[in-house]
Amino acid sequence: MLMRTDPFRELDRLAQQLMGPGTWSKPSAMPMDAYRDGDEYVVAFDLPGVSADAIDIDVERNMLTVKAERRPVAKGDDVQMELSERPLGVFSRQIVLADTLDTEHIQADYDAGVLTLRIPIAERAKPRKISIGVGSGRKEISG
To answer: What is the structure's pLDDT at 76?
Structure first.
């Protein structure tokens, strides 16, 4: 038998029980990090215990939607649950992407419970050098 020693963990568990598991109509939020790495944006979602086939990634215009479902582990008839703290159900996150990102070339990798999306910065959004012509009044854009 397992013993609980952290009183705050019990409060977290109680709050999760009151909110209930996420459903497709009312999913729970998933934690994420987002940062720029050179010429791409990286977004990492924590999805421990979720199989890759239970993850759905959609992009419509500039709205990125990630949905995932953590299903219960198959149990036999002789199994008696002693403690269940890992949340089950549906998790979702929506992010509005800037127009400067190339949504046609998003790469997704899933490793060790972390879904990592790499979104390149569009060529039109990268800095360009503008040269000035002397005497002709003409400017050229070099990219």
So the answer is: 78
Cβ burial, residue 45 (10 Å; 0-12/13-18/19+): buried
* Cα-to-chain-centroid distance, residue 77: 36
CA distance 79 to 76: 5
Block residue for tokens 């709050």: 15
Contact 91, 67 (CB under 8 A): yes
Taking the CB of residue 127, how many other CB atoms lie within 10 A of it? 5
What pairing do the DSSP bridges indicate for beta strands 28-29 and 139-142?
unpaired
From CA 114, how far away is CA 44, in angstroms rounded?
6
140 touches 131 (CB < 8 A): yes
Residue owning tokens 């998790």: 91
* 117 burial type by CB count under 10 A (0-12 exposed, 13-18 middle, 19+ buried): buried
Instruction: Count how many Cα atoms sit within 13 Å of the Cα of residue 84 in the half-sphere of its side chain.
Output: 12
| Contact between residue 41 and residue 34 where contact means Cβ atoms under 8 Å apart | yes
pTM for this prediction: 0.69
What SS3 state is found at 11?
helix
Q: What percent of the chain has pLDDT over 70?
A: 73
